Amino acid sequence: PSLVLEREQISSIGRGLCVLLGISVEDTQKDADYIVRKILNLRLFEDENGRAWTKSVMDRDFEVLCVSQFTLHCVLKGNKPDFHLAMPAELAQPFYNSILENMRSTYKPELIKDGKFGAYMQVSIQNDGPVTVELASPTGPTDPKQLSKQEKQQQRKEKTRSKGPSDSSRDKGALRSRQDPNASSGAEGDVSSEREP
């Protein structure tokens, strides 16, 4: 999932996080577990002495307001928004509910609040800071261009790993050490100031 966390003074629930949660077509339970862990453990609040970035919502007994937000997975086609990367509502609603239940079982259920899934909502928040953090689960990007770029990088890594060091590079290293017995690879920390051009 992708989400935006806003540290807020939320008039309806008190101090805590307002979480705008977007669910991607590719999200799995592993993504949901990661997001729940981060929402509850990110150190976005000050401690009792006013030291910033030291306490999480769980440390401070703060509340979490979750609002389903499919528009976080928007892709622009010209000037028109396209939401095909967002999970369809009939699948997203049970997924969203499972995230809420996971948070409630991990933390204090009475401190986990949610908006109405798929409803038009007007959320009144008073920003405290302001602090806004964008967070996405690390299983991979959903942008098709980024996916193909990531796949190419992975293929390059696999090719490099499968080749290993070539025979010619090993032979050159052995030849160099036979020619100059005083030459150092630098592994022992030996730095010579006298080098031949």
TrEMBL record:
Belongs to the DTD family. One of its GO terms (molecular function) is Gly-tRNA(Ala) deacylase activity. It is found in: Cytoplasm. InterPro entries: Daa-tRNA_deacyls_DTD, DTD-like_sf. Residues 146-157, 168-179 have a biased composition (Basic and acidic residues). Residues 131-197 are annotated as: Disordered. This is D-aminoacyl-tRNA deacylase. It comes from Amphiprion ocellaris. It catalyses: a D-aminoacyl-tRNA + H2O = a tRNA + a D-alpha-amino acid + H(+); glycyl-tRNA(Ala) + H2O = tRNA(Ala) + glycine + H(+). Its EC number is 3.1.1.96.
